[in-house]
Amino acid sequence: MNLSVKIGALTLQNPVTVASGTFGYGVEYSPLLDLNQLGAVVVKGIRLDPVRGNPTPRTAEVTSGLLNAIGLQGPGVDGFIRKYWPFLKTLKVPTIINIWGTTIEEYAEVARRFDALGGVGALELNVSCPNIKAGGSQFGTDLKLLSQVVTACRKVTKLPLITKMSPNVVSIVPYAQAAEAAGSDALSIMNSFPAMAIDIATRRPRLANVTGGLTGPCIKPIALKLVWEAAKAVRIPIIGMGGIQTATDAIEFLVAGATAVAVGTANFYEPQTTFQVLAGLQEYMERHRMTDVRELTGSLRVGS
Ligand SMILES: Cc1cc2nc3c(=O)[nH]c(=O)nc-3n(C[C@H](O)[C@H](O)[C@H](O)COP(=O)(O)O)c2cc1C
Fold it and tell me: How close is the Cα of 289 to the center of ligand 1, in Å?
């Protein structure tokens, strides 16, 4: 049975990865599971300098989901390389580094630094953050900025570039096409959905930041639709994510058009989710006499 898939020039031994920000820097989960069984390890977003993040509370449980406003806390490029890279580089599976910036130049500088590091599997561009030079406009919801940021990173690195799409757009199609045209090797779909929750006892927002990103099972149908729409519009592979808890969820994403999947919020309450997904995927393939996981990608039967 072939489980391996390609994300640009990067080969993953299987299509099951983790979603940035839900798996720390890998090392935190290493006592709980053998990271070398994953398709890839994807780390929390890194920008050039360290970031303290938002005040607490930063998370709130909602019906079938999680709200978070962590504020992209992180150690910065140097801190990451010093603290986490020595562990990550010993893994047999690739590390995908999620990067972000507040200007196009910053994204490019972070991409250049990780290109120079050597041994990185791929870079995932988190474009769901504001550009301080464009009045706070989010890169991922502005076609011109999205194209500029991917182009700028493409110029400084040959590493596979994965653009992580924002769901906060009317149609994902032009954004997916813009990322592809600017040189992205793959797309991750999707990032969290902007949302909020209120405690009626205090009439205060449940997050100190008032609003945050919604993730978990409640966003899965939205993510599936976006994957399906984008897959029809681009030729580059898609990593599908949003509420995956089971093999059934993951298979839905593959059938909708994803080449690989990422488990996010589920890692917080069941760190073995990725393995359960992988085992269930293999069982499904055996039951359906499939020998190659790529047969599933985009196999949705629409119409009669
Ligand atoms: C606590 C938390 C932190 C996150 N941090 C990042 C991040 O740093 N960069 C990023 O691109 N996405 C981040 N995400 C979004 C996830 O990678 C993923 O796109 C989203 O959670 C949807 O998947 P899920 O429903 O399986 O969690 C974060 C999500 C959560 C819940």
Answer: 34
What is the full DSSP assignment across 4-69? -EEETTEEESSSEEE-TTSSTTSGGGTTTS-GGGSSBEEEEEE-SS-B--PPSP-EEEETTEEEE-
Q: How far is the CA of 193 from the centre of ligand 1 (A)?
A: 10
Identify whether 129 is a catalytic site residue.
Answer: yes
> For a substitution probing ligand 1, which of 191, 224, 261, 276 has the most ligand atoms within 8 Å of its CB?
191
Per-residue pLDDT tens over the stretch 173-224: 999 999 999 999 999 999 999 999 999 999 999 999 999 999 999 999 999 9
Q: How far apart are CA 6 and CA 12, in angstroms?
A: 6
pTM value? 0.98
| Residue whose CA is at the smallest distance from ligand 1 atom 5 | 21
Instruction: Report whether residue 215 contacts ligand 1, using a CB cutoff of 6 Å.
Output: yes
Q: How far is the CA of 157 from the centre of ligand 1 (A)?
A: 24
Mean of the per-residue pLDDT values of the chain: 97
pLDDT at 131 over 90: no
Give per-residue pLDDT as tens, 13-60: 999 999 999 999 999 999 999 999 999 999 999 999 999 999 999 999
Strand order, beta sheet including 211-215:
59-62, 65-68, 211-215, 193-196
